[in-house]
Design goal:
By secondary structure, this protein is α/β, with parallel strands linked by helices. Helix content is 28%, strand content 20%.
Length: 343
């Protein structure tokens, strides 16, 4: 029998690196000068890109030196396979959902293993690894103020996939075959006329909607783009989404802020998600105190008493229908079965 070694049966595995955990814990001190940001950023040079999640290392021993098939599933009967790969005695996996139980087994023509299960920590955000780009996170997993959470696997934010970045074949496989991205929402005006189809795959729809950031994001010149984007998000057949600008920082950050806010995320979640772009492999440093972002936030505070109300009212002023906003909430939210996710 093939002997499974790691992760052990019943193990709980972290999907965040030590660098990510440190920044989530102490990021405000680095960004406000209480701790040395340059030294912090230097320490993750060994990671090459601090926005990449921690991998799960699967290890096993087989009597025969044969290549085996490792299967990883979200169901005990393996009816919902997440990974099926050929490997000798090890496999490194990424992009698992947070707070989720998985089952794994290994088999070859001569022998097979028993089934082990493991769970992933309930820690947000869910960092993603799409080879060839950076700064990718799932909007899902965040708890809302009214007892719901944003579903995982529906909307991803990140950097571009071409021009300055180049999505690899492995990255395409993950986005297209594993995660099934249906809509590539490109917020780059500079890509219009350059990018003709989605780098993810021929059956991933490329939708180009040039967007402005920060103070221009909340001005009338941006309203038509917002109406187009939230009309797309209100149609369930367009999911899962990947939306991006160049670095996944400014235009992407403003749109992520809006989506998370109308779903009911609290202020600290919204601010932290903006600042986590500081882990990007592109060298971005994003601070909630920077002038353009702070001015946008200050203006939006006048739209209501909490961020769900503020961003809902802002979108209504921009011409987004209440029906579309409610449909997006219906699609993206699920009743939480936990008290809160750890941050």
């Amino acid at each position: 029998m093939i002997e499974l070694k790691n992760p052990g049966n019943g193990a709980c595995v972290s999907l965040q690196t030590s660098v990510q955990k440190e920044f989530i814990r102490d990021g405000r001190k680095y960004l406000t000068g209480q701790l040395d940001l340059q030294s912090f950023r230097w320490q993750y040079h060994d990671y090459f890109d601090a926005s990449k999640p921690s991998r799960i290392s699967f290890r096993w021993e087989a009597k025969d030196a044969l290549s085996s098939i490792i299967e990883i599933s979200k169901t005990a009967d393996f009816s919902e396979i997440f990974v099926s790969a050929v490997a000798r005695n090890r496999y490194d996996g990424y992009n698992f959902e947070i707070g989720t139980t998985y089952y794994w087994r290994v088999k070859n023509p001569r022998e097979e293993s028993e089934v082990f299960s493991f769970s992933t920590e309930e820690t947000v955000p869910r960092f993603m690894n799409f080879d060839g780009t950076t700064n990718v996170r799932d909007l899902g997993g965040h708890a809302t103020e009214d007892g719901f959470r944003i579903k995982q696997g529906l909307v991803y934010r990140g950097a571009e996939l071409d021009m300055h970045q180049s999505l690899t074949d492995d990255g395409k496989k993950v986005m297209h075959e594993v995660l099934g991205i249906k809509t590539d929402l490109d917020l780059r005006g500079e890509a219009v006329g350059f990018t003709q189809k989605s780098p993810i795959g021929d059956d991933t729809e490329l939708v180009q909607v040039p967007l402005c950031a920060y103070t221009e994001y909340i001005q009338e010149q941006n309203f038509e783009a917002l109406r187009k984007i939230f009309s797309l998000l209100a149609d369930e057949k367009n999911y899962p989404f990947y939306f991006h600008c160049w670095g996944g920082a400014d235009r992407t950050g403003c749109l992520a802020f809006t989506i998370e806010a109308i779903c009911g995320a609290d202020e600290e979640t919204l601010m932290k998600d903006f600042e986590l772009t500081s882990l990007s492999g592109l060298g971005n440093v994003k601070n909630r105190d920077e002038e353009d972002f702070a001015t946008m936030v200050k203006t939006l505070r006048g739209y209501g008493k909490n961020w769900r109300e503020r961003m809902t009212n802002f979108l209504i002023v921009a011409g987004v229908s209440v029906k579309n906003i409610e449909k997006i909430r219906e699609i993206m939210l699920e009743k939480a079965d936990f008290t809160s996710f750890s941050v």
